[in-house]
Amino acid sequence: MHRRRSKAGRNFLRLLFLAAAAAAVLAVIGAVRVGPPPTVTIEPRLPGIGKKTAIDVRAEEPRRGLAGLRVEFVQGERVEVLETRTHVPRPAWSFWGPRKVLDTLTVEVGSETIKGLKEGQATVRVVAERAGSWLRSPAPVTVERQLPVRLRPPSLQVVSSRTYVDQGGSEAVVYRVGESAVRSGVQAGDWWFPGFPLPGGGAQDRFALFGVPFDLGEVGSVRLVAEDEVGNVARASFIDRFRPRPFRVDTIQVSESFLTRVVPPILDHEPELADKGNLLDNYLAINGDLRRKNARTLLELSQKSQSKFLWSDVFVPMRNAQVMSSFADRRTYMYEGRAVDRQDHLGFDLASTALAEVQSGNAGVVVLARFFGIYGNTVVVDHGYGLQTLYGHLSSISVEEGQAVAKGQVVGRSGETGLAGGDHLHFSVLLHGLSVNPAEWWDSHWIHDRLKLKLGAALP
Q1: Which member of 170, 184, 258, 348 lies 3.0 to 4.6 Å from 195 by CB, making a disulfide possible if both were Cys?
Q2: How many domains does the structure of the chain reveal?
Q3: Tens of pLDDT along 236-256?
Q4: C-alpha to C-alpha distance for 88 and 64, rounded to whole angstroms
Q5: How far is Cα 435 from Cα 390, in angstroms, rounded to an integer?
Q6: 363 or 6: which leads in pLDDT
Q7: pTM, to two decimals
Q8: Is 200 helix (H, G, I), strand (E, B) or coil?
Q9: Which helix (H) or strand (E) holds 434?
């Protein structure tokens, strides 16, 4: 019995010793074990600070975790705290448990967010607090990123004059930008018309072909714009005369026989367009949703336009054709005596004999030649600098994408594919995806007065 008690006592003392040793080790660890230095990165989204520059901050410490994060803006003697975060790291004696391993944030610095900002240099400073111990409070990790501060927009000077434009029409402007400009052009409502270096002009000379949207009744929002790499923007008015024009209101009767003829073929060519179970609902989806989808595709096509003039002189219309509709007719669609839809008809309908030859309005390169939604069999020709022409409802197509075409070259024959009510050509002129009045481009006097006098030798 005595031996058993003696052995049990020894085991107890051994366990007590081990526990005391473990406690001593944990005490030492808790007293001296600090977290390793966090990894910190500062990534500005722009090469400097202007109106508002977003800066992405990332701090990471995978062992004990972060204790805190502070972002500061420093310019001269001025120090401004932009954001502070506090975290609870894992205890010094613990090797498991929750902690904040990664923290990311975005701050915005610039003249719009920091009052009294001055040009020159500024510093974004990030202070990442480390996990401490009972006896040790380690120094935080501090990382800085110096950035230039630029607050003056690029210079912008209008060079051309006599800019006379109609609602729904086109024009050109020649201008000069400062060396800091990286983007320039014309903003007209929601539409953007980029500027290009003027062929044969000086290093800072630019020009833009632009349109005033058919649904923009005044030109207060039409401005020439130049922007630098940090978002500083210069704007200038440049339109000397604007003429609003009323658009014709038209009524289109939609019959059951028309729906039966046009809806199924379009659905067959558009597998992404869900069948709604009846002709009228399918037609409304085609006339609305598909029409908007086609418009987005035309905008995407314009962004691939060649940066050179592929055309010269006046555009030519379809030969021996009669204009059957005006540009931007406001159409109300009637079905069984009630209005079911309203859309704008952005182009001209040209009719001749059935299956008549359709010619390219000017020299260019074919960028689309296929069945194309509401337009049926369609050809789109790029003429450079965002100017394109569209030929829709064709019965047949005689050109291929990527093919160069001459002015007057046959691209197909008229037909009644897509949403056509009969054999005709739908013809549109597009500037950077915006439909503009085709009649101007058929007018040699307009080409001379509105474009040639401004662009000079730059326009072939």
Answers
A1: 184
A2: 3
A3: 999 999 999 888 888 989 999
A4: 9
A5: 10
A6: 363
A7: 0.85
A8: coil
A9: strand 434-436
